[in-house]
Amino acid sequence: NKKECERIQKLIKDHSRDDGAIELSEAFWIVRLYGDLRDEDIWRREQQAAKGFSRAQVAQYREAFVKADQEGTGWLPQAEIHPTIESVMPLDMLQAQTLRRELHMLGERQECVDFPEYLRLMRVVLGAAGF
Questions:
Q1: pTM for the full predicted model
Q2: What is d(CA 99, CA 77) in angstroms, rounded to the nearest whole number?
């Protein structure tokens, strides 16, 4: 996405020589910095999404998420979201409709739902049930 491209371009600009060249060691450093920035971003988003959930709930949801993430990518495609949530709690019709609507609103991002987004979806689904 555009935001990620801008982050990468800034890292490259900040760590390249005046002529724009980058040595191999600098390239590795840029990759490391970018990975760290993404990890921090995910951590911040997760902390925000976890507000209102108990630690036990977050642990339960993470366990279900990790179990469904068999490839270890850190994200789930849309087809795995509903069964993963169902493994934690059965959804009534309103909750299932709410989940479908929320996934539809994600557009292309519904094919790569990370844990913070999964927590947000859990909050919305639980809200539809009045919790």
A1: 0.76
A2: 14
